[in-house]
Each structure stands twice: as structure tokens, then as C-alpha cells.
Amino acid sequence: MPSSTLIKPPAIDTSKSPIENILELLPLRDIGPDIYTNIRPLWHPPGARGIYGGAAIAQCLAAAQLTIPPPTSANNNAVFLVHSMHCYFVLAGDASIPVLYHVERVREGKSFMTRTVQARQRGKCIFTVTMSFVREGSAGKKTVHHECQMPEGVRAQLEADEEDDKESLVELENVSKERAANGEDSGAFLSRRIGILNNDSPHPHLKRTRQWIRARGHISPSSGHEPHLSALAYMTDSNFIGTVSRVQNLWRFGRPPSKNAPPPTPRASAEASSNNQTSDPPSSPSRSSHPIAEVEAIENAAHPTAPVIGMMVSLDHTIYFHRPRDFRADEWLFSEMESPWAGDGRGVVFQRIWSRGGELVATCVQEGLVRLVQDEQGVREEGEADSEGRKRRRGSRL
Asked: Mapped to the 3 state alphabet, what secondary structure does 327-379 carry?
């Protein structure tokens, strides 16, 4: 029977946050240089085609960071931190077997270093990324600067919600600690959804989806700042391509409920939005119990006849770290997403992430596959077209 790791997973280190434990890697020096593997099973979201994409993104970053030279007198105490990642999802990752991360040291410069990482299973690349690291302070004292401001009012609303939900948040953290102490999966991060901005607009590209996110627990100071960067990378894939379905009011967790079915309560929505982790699985009637399904059922209540998603998967993912040092992933970060374009079975989403203090710390871009369930006539015509196309291709080869 296959094993999800090469070695027996060690006991949970309770001195570290859940996300630090999840992203911990094992170097495979006997196999080759700069090769690493996961030491704990990777999360497979309910209904998804493979492992959570954020895990591959974050573990690739963690592996690359292990190949960056530490500051020493020989390199004038140079500190290099990641400033950009360009990722491609190639194949669905299998949570039942280990992932091997192969790092290539592409460039060792004075101001920039470049790494590529391939995540591989069964000898095939499932995920690839190129990332660049910049030397802190290499730009000099005089620099150009501008940035988007965090939307007004969202921080005040968070503070009010925190006061109201203080007891439930403490309870969530206590449950997380208990699960970790028992060696159970305690979830990597928390998210708090906010209502869609401009949700009444007839133009999907003008809508904005919003959430607050943070890593559970407290990232240990002894681990340095790198875990905060990996944790942010992990969280950027949360509900990312799903923005397309939300601004279009599409159904992705099964067909619309019948008119006689009672709508879920706002309380259920609040609980679902703070669940362990979130994802963007393809639509299926059996997935109506997904943590986000109840939330989106409320959002789509006025659109019972909207199209149903047949498949939704991420294709590529880019992260620009604007302030690699100026944030903590275990403190609330505000995320706002928008979709400027969708068509031809694909969609593009932009994401901006601010610290609680209002500093823009990252900008992300993702393109994903967004295919709708076709009606019977459409499916029949598509099948006939495919059949005709195959006949023509066979004829051209004769």
C-alpha cells in the first residue's frame, strides 16, 4: 500500500505553528543534492482533483529557501529574500504518495539569485516554479515608491468582529492546539470572509471578493522569517480561482437547491467561513457539504438558474512579494480579489494582500480552467463535432 511520506511522520512539534509542521521538509542527500521531500501528508481538499495547490507552492518555496546561502562575513552578511514566484500546475498531485522537490540553482548574483523547483511524483513533474530572490538593501537609499491603499473601513470591521467573536476565536485556537498535541491535523490557517463588494453590479469585473487570512497559532521566532513567506504563499491559493465563480454567481458545489429547500442560516455561513482550510474544487452534487458551499448558497440564492461549473482547476500562479520582511503570516492579512477577464473556458484573477497596518505586502495573479456543465444539446453537438474532427484527422493521415 502506498505511503504519503518516505519516512514515518515525526510527532507534531508543539513549539511550532501548524503551518510550520505542515511545510517541514526532509533533505534527500543520498539521492542527490538539493532534493527534498514532505515529511507529513499533504492536504487533499474535499472534492478536489489533487493536493491543495498552496501546499505545492509553499513547499517549493521552502525547498528553494534552503539553498539560499545564509549571511556570513564572506558575503558581507547579505540577506536574500524571495520577491517573485511564477508557478505552473502541471498534473494533479496525489496525496497518497510522497512529493520530491528538485531545486536547481540557476543564478548566484550579487543582487539577485534565481531558483527553479520541480515537484515530482512517479517520475513526472506535477508542479514547476521559477523564483527570484533579492538582496535586502541592494537598491540604495533613494528609491521610487507608490502602492495601492487598503480599502477604507475593513480594518475597523475586523476589530469589531474580533471583539464579538473573541470567545469563538480562542476556542478555535484551543481546539487546534489539542488536535496538534494528539498528532491530528489541526488546519493550517483561518479565514474570515467579507461580503462581495459591488455584488449588485451586472458587471463581474467590477466585483471584489474579500477575506482576512492568517496562519493558526504563532510562528516560532527561532525559525526566522522564511516560514512567514512560505505561509503567505500557502494561503494565497485559498479561494483564488473560485473568485470567477463568485463574481459570476455560478454554482460549483452541485446544482441549485429546489425552491422548497430552506436556505442556510447566516450562523452556518459564519462558521463555514472560519473553517480549517478552503479550496476551489470542481462542482459535484456530492460536494454540497463542503465548508464553503453553505456560504455560496446564500450568495447565489437570487440566481437559482445560474450555470453549474463542471471543472475548475488552477493553471498557473504568480506571487510578487513587495515587502518580504514587513509582515507576519500569523497576524491577520487582508486579501481582495477581482477577475478582469474570463472566456474560452479560462478565467484570470488578481489578488492584493495588505498587512493589518495597511501596507501592501503582495500581489498575486492566477489563471484557471473554468468549464461549465453543458446542456444535453450542447454535449451532443460537441460530441458530434469531436467525432467529425476525428474522422477528418484520420482522413488526413491516409
From this structure: CCCCCCEEEEEEEEEEECCEEEEEEEEEECCCCEEEEEEEEEEEEECCCHHHH
CB 281 within 8 A of CB 331: no
Q: Using an 8 Å Cβ cutoff, are 40 and 22 in contact?
A: yes
φ/ψ of residue 153, rounded to 5: 90, -20
Cross-strand partners of 194:
210
Comparing 174 with 214, which gets the higher pLDDT? 214
Q: How far apart are CA 311 and CA 381, in angstroms?
A: 19
Q: Are 48 and 279 in contact (CB under 8 A)?
A: yes
Sheet holding 25-27, edge to edge: 25-27, 35-38, 100-108, 112-121, 124-135, 80-89, 309-321, 360-372, 346-355, 333-343, 208-215, 189-197
Least Cα distance to 133 among 378, 325, 309 occurs for: 325
Q: What is the mean pLDDT of residues 158-174?
A: 70
From residue 73, give the alpha-carbon distance in Å to each of 65, 105, 142, 226, 310.
19, 22, 26, 21, 56
Please tell me the distance from the alpha carbon of residue 333 to that of residue 358, in angstroms, as a whole number.
9
Q: Is the dihedral of CA 131, 133, 139, 145 positive or negative?
A: positive
Q: Rounded to an integer, what distance in angstroms lies between the CA atom of residue 126 and that of residue 124?
A: 6
What are 56-91's pLDDT values in tens digits?
999 999 999 999 999 999 999 999 999 999 999 999
pLDDT above 90: percentage of residues in the chain: 69
